[in-house]
Amino acid sequence: MEARTLHAHELDPHRPNPARMYDYYLGGFHNFEADREAAEAAESAFPGVRAAARANRDFVRRAVRYLVGEGIDQFLDLGSGVPTAGNVHEVAQALNPDARVVYVDAEPVVVHAGEALLANNDRARILHADIRHAEAVLGASEVEQLLRLDRPLGLIMASVLPHIPDCDDPDTLVARYVAALAPGSYLVLSHGSIDDYNAAETGEVYDVYRAATSPITSRPAARLTAWFDGLDLVEPGVVVVTHWHPERGDVPAKLRIAHHGGVARVPWRPAAR
Ligand SMILES: C[S@@+](CC[C@H](N)C(=O)[O-])C[C@H]1O[C@@H](n2cnc3c(N)ncnc32)[C@H](O)[C@@H]1O
């Protein structure tokens, strides 16, 4: 199957979109008034949504720095969001100028902004595709030209699986991508678990997202841990993102919203006889 092509006419600036709301939480400007209003409504329904988004992005940056330190020089970032300042390619290429990155996102505004940002970077591209079509993504020309799947790679699925409902089988999706990774690769995953804290208070946040172009699903940390089955979890395992290799100054002390993350390595497997 071809990677799904999405067109600008699919963009509705009057309907809040979670990707653009997320961009607003991060302080970006790739969002419309409807996105900003919905983001503020979610934040006032349950203050802490914005802090969780920022803490998640900080986690991704720390994970990328860790992976580069482990020798990873190529990244596939699924559901990347707008690759604004401090994103994967900047963090990785600051440490290793030869690092290569392919971003994948389904949101036209994200892809449009990404193409502009990456126009002068021949080692980073953004692919406009739906990550639910794993074969199409893995076989896309951007991936084939920039990445080598037979070498260790950093696969990032940060805060994208809340956008994949259970009816789309996220378990099989994660397993399909992990199966394509060479030994020595890493999986970086994060996911919101709003219910862990206070379901009553957070109900209104879900209402805001239900009215958006796609609802979000909250899942407990145990579900996230299961996605790492068969991989070697890097210490401290699956934790609230602010607790994963914290660095002073870049994260709030405590999140009201449980947003979990973890990093794991694909083990070397004995060669088949
Ligand atoms: C909450 S943002 C996370 C951005 C980034 N990964 C991070 O952690 O900072 C989720 C992103 O996933 C994208 N997304 C959601 N569902 C997707 C799908 N089925 N295929 C590709 N991208 C998707 C959205 O457009 C959005 O940009």
Automatic annotation (TrEMBL):
Organism: Actinocrinis puniceicyclus
Methyltransferase is among the record's keywords: yes
Example GO molecular function: methyltransferase activity
Keyword Iron: no
GO term, biological process aspect, one: methylation
Organism domain of life: Bacteria
Pfam families named in the record: Methyltransf_19
Listed name of the protein: SAM-dependent methyltransferase
Lineage of origin: Bacteria, Bacillati, Actinomycetota, Actinomycetes, Catenulisporales
EC code: 2.1.1.-
The entry's keywords: Methyltransferase, Transferase
